[in-house]
Amino acid sequence: MGQLRRLEPFSRMYGWDRGTPVDRYYIEAFLKEHSGRIAGRVLEISENTYTYRFGGTAVTSSDVLHYDNPSPPATITGDLTDAPHIPSDSFDCVIITQTLMLIYDVPAALRTIHRILKPGGTVLVTQAGLSQIADPEWRHTWYWGFTQASSQRLFQDAFPGGWVEARAYGNMLSTIAFLAGLGFEELDKRELDHVDPDYQMLIGVIATKAGGPPA
């Protein structure tokens, strides 16, 4: 950390080549905290790793949505902004990690998510706040960096009558480490767990559709 007076990051791979990216620490902490929601029929984007890691035997059915690749593990192909082929009121839980910043029409995607959830169903979302944009495959469609306030407002608009909580993760040190490409293993737990709302590196959102038991 004494070598930050530099123009090149330590890694342009978010820290994967040094360990595990710092944002993964917060993503997995968020999903672990809300793992009781990952049950029944679950939809995850691109893969179902988190579905089974955090839902385990509570998951009775797993679906994977991929934008344009119908190959396994995908079970559904489609665009969240326009997916009439996905039946309404279908899923108990939807998991969307680090995806919404790549979708230009976020409100349309949230309308789809709300529609395909069962009444009382929950979406668990993580999205980028302050981040590297280092992957050339994603750079041209990386449209947004979110805040706690913008996330709360977007999901409240999309989930009328439901329950929404947006939470920020990160602090000055962990955000600098992530931007510089360090792995989270290079920080200690105290440094990672401190939350400073002035440095919103990652946003986690839990939103429950109206019509089920109280959140």
UniProtKB/TrEMBL annotation:
Entry keyword set: Methyltransferase, Transferase
CDD domains in the record: AdoMet_MTases
Every Methyltransferase type domain range: 73-124
GO BP of this protein: methylation
Full protein name: Methyltransferase domain-containing protein
Provenance organism: Paracoccus aurantius
Keyword hit for Transferase: yes
Example GO molecular function: methyltransferase activity
